[in-house]
Amino acid sequence: MILAAEKSPDLDRQLADVAVDALATEPRMSQRFRPVRSVHEISRAWHLVYRAYHHAGLIYSNPYLLHTTPAATGEGAMVLIDQPGDDVSGTLTVVEDSPQGLSLDRWFRPELDRLREQGGHLMEVGLFAHAGQLPEPVDESPGSGYPRCGAIPAAQRSAEMGASLFGMLRIAFWYGIHHGVTDFVVAAHPAQARYFSVAFGLLQIGLPRDGDAPRRRPMVLMRVNVEAMLDRGPLPATWRAMLDDPINPDCFASRHTLRPARPHSLAVLAGHIDEYLWFQYPGSRVAN
């Protein structure tokens, strides 16, 4: 995941409180925070991931303008979006563990295998991106001097990203609960570990690893065990808010997954994702 730079514990708690307040104004499965309903929405979500990650220097450019992983196209995956208006402003993908494994196995296989050996049923949370991570538009009209248009203060950007992340995580949490998930796992930059710990109760396990080129940004594996979190208390405000507002499992019936049988117009978009996977991960394809 990509969030803001390292913050103080007080600011972490403030941003978590903002996220909880924002969530309280949303219905249980709103039009704003929801699973994708079409291949087109999946493509839009992973295009936003591409733009955010490429801008941050975490990935190389590619002709498909997408970024995802083979595991994220599997049957147990769910792509979520934050769409307050016409545009997708945030996205998050969760992947239920399967015999094919998780994307994080590439870096943290020993730690994840230990959780599996202990009876853990894992769900990976990743591919988070938000429009607040993108460069702000500039006024390029003649004589403008290229001032920034509508610049948003950094603290407000971070709060909006936190609210977006929390809104999607609430859905991911209940999706995992209804699927018998015991542990949620995520990879984070070491500077962001405090945020995830304070806001969501995640704990670091294992040592940092270097990510992929071009920046080889370090990351740590973080995990929250649902039973242990409920037992240890007191719960973070984010958990209290999620537990107080459950989501019916029927709400996930409309989520869209990438399947081989599609109308032609959708097959073209799915084919675009398939071609990207072959390009980025040779030998891979849309998982069924």
Concise description?
The chain is α+β, with helices and mostly antiparallel strands and about 290 residues long. The protein has a domain at about 10-35 and about 75-135 and about 160-250: Gcn5-related N-acetyltransferase (GNAT) (Aminopeptidase).
Describe this structure in words.
This protein has 288 residues and is α+β, with helices and mostly antiparallel strands. It has a domain of 176 residues: 3-Layer(aba) Sandwich (Aminopeptidase), CATH 3.40.630. It is 38% helix and 16% strand. It has a 7-stranded mixed beta sheet, sandwiched between helices. Helix 1 crosses helix 4 and helix 1 packs across helix 5. The longest helix has 25 residues. The relative contact order is 0.20.
Detail the topology: elements first, then pairings.
Elements: H1 9-24, E1 33-35, H2 39-55, E2 77-82, E3 90-96, H3 105-117, E4 122-130, H4 154-178, E5 183-188, H5 193-200, E6 203-210, E7 218-225, H6 226-232, H7 237-243, H8 264-280
Parallel strand pairs: 4-5
Antiparallel strand pairs: 1-2, 2-3, 3-4, 5-7, 6-7
Helix pairs in contact: 1-4, 1-5
Question: What are the segments in which pLDDT stays under 50 over at least 5 consecutive residues?
Answer: 2-12, 25-29, 138-149, 260-268
Question: Which structural class best describes the helix and strand composition?
Answer: alpha+beta
Q: Strand order within the widest sheet? A: 1-2-3-4-5-7-6
- What's the count of strands? 7
| CATH class group of the domain at 9-35 and 75-136 and 162-248 | Alpha Beta
Shape: globular
Largest sheet: 7 strands, mixed
Report the radius of gyration as a whole number of Å.
Answer: 19 Å
- CATH architecture field of the domain at 9-35 and 75-136 and 162-248: 3-Layer(aba) Sandwich
CATH superfamily of the domain at 9-35 and 75-136 and 162-248: Gcn5-related N-acetyltransferase (GNAT)
User: DSSP strand (E) fraction?
Assistant: 15-25%
> And the CATH topology of the domain at 9-35 and 75-136 and 162-248?
Aminopeptidase
Run of helices and strands: HEHEEHEHEHEEHHH
Average predicted confidence as pLDDT? 81
Residue share in helices? 25-40%
Terminal CA distance = 25 Å
The total count of helices amounts to: 8
